[in-house]
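2 proteins. here.
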Amino acid sequence: MSGLAFAALVLCLHIMTGESQQFTIIVEHSQINVTAGADALFSVRPSSSVSSGSWIFKGKAVAQWIGQTGIVDNVYRSRAELFTSNGSLLLKSVNMSDSGEYRVNMVPTSGFQTSATVTLRVTGPGPVTGVAVVTNDSTPLENLDIIALSCVASGTVETRTWFKDNQPIQENGRIFTSPDKAKLTIISVNRNDVGTYKCIASNSFSSDAGQTYVEVYCKYTDGNCTLGSGAIVGIVLGLLTMGLIGGASGWLIARRTDGIRDPPRSQYVTSINSGRKGTLDTNTVNASGTYENFSRNEQGARNNAEDGNSTYTGLVLGDRSVYSDLKR
C-alpha cells in the first residue's frame, strides 16, 4: 500500500508540474515597428484562463487587471486601452519616447506566473504636407449659420494650431475646436468673424500650413447687416470720388457764372467822350460778345449821341437795357 501511495503522489506532482509548464503566453509579434503618431497593438493570448496580469514598461506599470477589472496608469489613461479578455494592450498615438521593451506578466487560475516581452520600435514620422483648410459653408449668413473649418493634411500630424489674421484663436462658448484640433467650429457667425483663418499642422520633424478667407453675408435687405470690410472700403472710396467730382463741377460752374456776370472791366468800353464824332468799332468788344454785331441803326444812334446831344454824354455801354430805353 505504501508503494502504491508513493506512486500516486509522484504522478500527481508530475501532472501539476506538466500543467505549470504548459501555461504559456503566445505573442503575435515580438517586435512592433510603427511610425510616430500611429497606434501600437501588443497582441497576446494566454494558453489558459488567467486570474490577473500586468504590463510593465521601464519598471512602471502601464496597465494591470484582476479578473475582468482593468486599471490603466494615469500617465497612459488618455491613450492606452487594456483588453482583459486576453491581456492585449493598445497604445495610441505613440511617440519616440515610447520605444523600448514591454513585459507582460500573467498569473493563470492554476499554475505559476508567466512572462513575455514585446519590443516597440517607434520611427520618425513622415513629413506633413498638403495642409488645407476646408469650410462647410462658403456663404454663411450673419447671425444665422454655423461654419465648421477642417484642417486636413497628409503625413503624420501630431499637433494643430489655429490662427485668425495671424493671431492665435481664443476659444469660447461660440468658437471652439475638436479635441484633436482638426476642426474649428463657429456658432452664429457675425461680422467679427470675417478674416483669414490659418491652420498649422506639425510633427516632431516638419510642419505645414493652410488657410482660407471667411466672409459673412447679410440675409436682409433693410441694411441691418453690416457690410464686410472690403465693401466698406469700396463705398468710402466711391463717396470720396463723388465728392471730388461734385466739388470740381461746382467750382467750374461758379467760375463760368462769375465770368458772365463780372468780366474784367478792361474788356468793356465804359464811357463815350461828349463832343466827339465817330462810330463804335464792334471789334473793340471782347469775346464775351455782349456788344458785338450792333445793327446799323444802333451805330447811327450812337453817332448821333456823340454829335452834341448832352443826354447821352457819359453813357456806360455796360448797361444795354438803358441804352435800349433811350433809343426808344
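next one coming up
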Amino acid sequence: MKVKEAIEQRRSIRNFKPDQVSQEDIKKVLEAGRLAPSGTNLQPWRFIIIESEEMRKKLKSYTLNFVAEAPAVIVCCAKLDANQYSQRRIVELHKAGAFKGTELEKMDFSNYKGRQKDEEEVKAYLRLNAAIAIENMALQATELGLGSCWVMMFNQQKVKQLLELDDSLEIVSLLPLGYPQEERSQRPRLELDQLIVDWV
C-alpha cells in the first residue's frame, strides 16, 4: 500500500472485531511511531500497550466503552522531561549530517539550549511531537488492515493511576487497535480551496 492510499483509507474506527491483534503487528505500529520526526530529534513519545482483558475492563471506567473493547489499546504519552536532552539530541543530528548544506552545519551545538519556553509552551511542544508519532501509527495500522481511533476523551489522572505512571509522562491520546467490524465510508472533508488561505 502506498502512503497516499493509507491516508485515503484511514478511518476513525469505533467498532472492532474481538479478534486479537498479533504482537508482531502491534510492534510494526509502534515502529512507525518510533520513526516519526520530532523537533530537535527529541523523540518524546512513550507507549504503554494494554492487551489484557482485566486491564481493559478497568480502563473502561475512565474512557469511552469502545476504546476498552478494542483488543489492544496503545496509551500514547509525551515524556515531559524530554527537553533536558535537547542539546544531546541536536549534537547527534549534527554528527549524523542532518544539517549538511544549511547554515546549521557550521553552528557549534556544544552549549545548545534552544529557545526559552515556559512550562506550558514546553508541554504543547512535546504533545505536538507525540502527535506526529500517533499519526504515523494510525497510518501503519491502516496498511496492516487494522482500525484505530485517536481518542482524547479519557480521565488523565485515573488512567495514569491505573497504569502507575509518574509525573514525567502525560497521556496525549489513547489509540485503540483492532480489526474493523465493517467497512467505513470517507468522512466529510472540506474542499482544498476552502483550506488554502493564500498562495503567494
